[in-house]
Amino acid sequence: MSPTMAAAATGPDSAAELLLQRLEQVAADGEAGLCSLEAAAALGLEHQVLVGAVKSLQSLGEVIEAEQRTSKKWELTPEGQEIVHEGSHEVRVFNSIPSEGLLQSELMQLPSGKVGFSKAMSNKWIRLDKSSENGPRIFQAVESVQDTVREKLLQVQNGEANCLEEKDKNELKKRKLLAEVTIKTYWVKKGSAFSTTIAKQETDLTPEMIASGSWRDLKFKSYNFEALGIMPESGHLHPLLKVRTQFRQIFLEMGFTEMPTNNFIESSFWNFDALFQPQQHPARDQHDTFFMKDPAEAIDFPMDYLKRVKRVHSQGGYGSQGYKYEWKLEEARKNLLRTHTTAVSARMLYQLAQQEKFTPAKYFSIDRVFRNETLDATHLAEFHQIEGVVADYGLTLGDLMGVLKEFFTKLGITQLRFKPAYNPYTEPSMEVFSYHQGLKKWVEVGNSGVFRPEMLLPMGLPDGVSVIAWGLSLERPTMIKYGINNIRELVGHKVNLQMVYDSPLCRLDA
């Protein structure tokens, strides 16, 4: 076949027509069929191209009959082909040794040195003199050698692999000079509807065909009911759930333990009093907190701890003068929708204090909290709070800043600033700011601080134990920007990012 014909035959239709013509030719010579591998060689095609043509013709109906056959053959590996051209490693080593011998260290530097030395020694072609003056020296032990390995590989290359004994094949395979490969071919014969020309089959029945009646004279392609359909587009996690997963993974990588946060309803005691937040604080007003009607009050408290909390509020203690007011149990018993997950942190720290021997701990939580906000473009009645807590001896504000830097760096936020702030239950306290590259301004990304002794010591934690903590909202725009990185990719379709930033969940003044 000419180069022009071979190039033209690379298309599936051209290859199919050439195959049909070849099949017609061998049938005229009295042969029942042909092998696809032999046909590909005769037509100057790659075997895979011809296999594609066979499958294409099979889809046309009874044009051809094709039976798949499997056979095995031995082929030279790249190293085996190298030996055919240059000789075996052991022969090359033997030929490289001069009459005065060669230092073993120099021989080992040759391309075939290591393998060839081992094989030549086992064949007793060379000998090793360890008493040589400059180190072990290699000498030829015979006058000449025969390269039987190359001869056997030449037999395989010439298609005479069957002439080799099985042990020879296995030895060459063990040396990775031969490989046994499986070849899948087709035995192709004429079908009942055989033709050397390919008629295009219709795939769609159109209204025009029905109206004109032309469909009666057309051939339609058969449906392949075993073909796999197009996979439907799957759903996507909400972007906030994606960010939540990233936050959770960061905490786990840093060795934190997740706190149970499945109690949305909390008592005022754990939500406020245990955090050394006074009962007359504005956050306890009904304009800021959702209080429960049924059940309206909690009844189960650790009474010894409750008494210590009452004392530090009303009378002071642990080096503090307290708030000097009349602390009321009925206020502490009021049930509410928790306003922050710090209530969960208080419960966990109290449980930690009840251990016989204090052990350092790191906790985190990510869950919903509720505020009685007036709903508008920048405020919702619920949002997600992320909180991290570390309890250990001697923790300082420097430790808090170091942990925050590590935490936000894992999130992708590297430009941080800290600003002093006030929180009822932390002293000192800091707000955390990050520079937003998109908005070209510093925005608040979280709040943090060291829990006050008035909160920790009534729990029973030992003197000298400090607790550092920080919290942030999942919905903050910087968290969306840095945590998701590319919101378009996550939701699976085009999104106007400015609309995302301007939404109620992401407004900077939210």
From TrEMBL:
Can you give the residue ranges of the Aminoacyl-transfer RNA synthetases class-II family profile domain? 242-504
Name of a matching Pfam family: PheRS_DBD2
- Tell me yes or no: is Transcription among this UniProt entry's keywords: no
Among NCBIfam families, the record links this protein to: pheS (TIGR00468), PRK04172.1 (NF003210)
Its BP terms in the Gene Ontology are:
phenylalanyl-tRNA aminoacylation; protein heterotetramerization
Localization, per the record, is:
Cytoplasm
* Species of origin: Naja naja (Indian cobra)
The molecule here is called phenylalanine--tRNA ligase
The protein's Enzyme Commission number: 6.1.1.20
Q: What family classification does the UniProt entry report for this protein?
A: Belongs to the class-II aminoacyl-tRNA synthetase family. Phe-tRNA synthetase alpha subunit type 2 subfamily.
Give start-end ranges for the coiled-coil region(s).
Answer: none
Which InterPro entries does UniProt cross-reference here?
Answer: aa-tRNA-synth_II, aa-tRNA-synth_II/BPL/LPL, Phe-tRNA-synth_IIc_asu, Phenylalanyl-tRNA_Synthase, PheRS_DBD1, PheRS_DBD2, PheRS_DBD3
